[in-house]
Amino acid sequence: MATPNYSYEKRQRELAKKRKTEEKRARKANPGREDSAASAQDTPGEATAPGSSDSADTALRG
User: Fold this and answer.
1) Residue 19: which of 9, 11, 29, 31 has the closest Cα?
2) Are 34 and 27 in contact (CB under 8 A)?
3) Hey, how many other C-beta atoms are within 10 angstroms of the C-beta on 28?
4) pTM of the model
């Protein structure tokens, strides 16, 4: 069994924390823009989801 690579895990935690603080700083720098960014991220997923979900629904029904 392989031993855990603690330095890799620590680095990933540090990167996640850094990413989170950068996002928070950007959010504070541009207040009110969070809603438009969230809706822009949802739009592309919604465009592709109906086509794929319809085929999945028919597969489950059949």
Assistant:
1) 11
2) yes
3) 8
4) 0.45
